[in-house]
# Entry
Amino acid sequence: MFNFNFSKYKYLSIGLSTVCIIAGFIYTFAVHKGFAHSLDFNGGLRAVVVLDKALGRNDVEKFFKDKEIEAIVIQLDKEKNHYQIDIGLGAVPKIEEYNNLNKPKSTDTNAIAKSRVTIDELIFMLTHGFKISEESILSADQVGAVVGGELTSTGITLLFSTLAIMTVYLSFRFQFKFALAASIALIHDLLFALAVIGVFQIKPSVPIIAALLTLFGYSINDTIVIFDRIRENSHSKVKVSTPSMINMSINQTLGRTINTSFTTLISIVALIIGGAVELYDFAFVLTFGIIIGTYSSIFIASPVIEIYNLVFHKDTI
# Structure
């Protein structure tokens, strides 16, 4: 039977993860000056328009790219050619610059005042740029960052609540050191995922939050499978050291872990290949989350138990 010595690399795996997480955050703030912005979290402009059927999504995206305006274009209705266009508030100067070059000169003070209203600026750009009437603009609004504030506060609350409940449950179901190891592994997964989101400048959104929560569930499930096998082996009549017990348990569950991760990844890859473009970021974060969740169950959570025993001078589970 295949028997890999995972315990031998416990400090290497923990050290490597720590370096990768720190490097990811340094790169995010040093190169990108922080995480990417999105309407859900930072506010911006959102318009729903009806365009000529000769125009496709690529044409719409190219229009904004040529103006150096970062816009998220979502096709809402393929038959009617309805599009939702999201633009961050940071792009307002570019919109005004385009409008100043294309607006007819006017001495009408009311018109001048109106032209300085952000929504009107967006409407003019859309009507002029795509040669459509104002009636073709179904809606145009400025979206506040309320959703982002609520998601952030709710997410932090849920995170600490989940960790607290999980610690209590695992302490009761197993032992405190198992609960501690699982919590550290979850924090590791979250920080690693945030580092990747920052490095690749993935825009925070509701689907990304859903992907992170899914990562939590997947990771803890994988970890508990290994912990349960460790507990079963600890009841054996043959007493072995903690490193040997952990290695044996991981190797016994390794086939199940790999098969589960692989079959789950097949579903996510199918989503990437055949799903909507709007789900790419969600699928990417979920794909990475499955990989890192599996990794942390083996190379983070399990070694923490061994280190805990070494610190408190215990040699058995």
User: Anything to note?
Assistant: Strands lie at 44-50, 71-77, 82-88, 137-143.
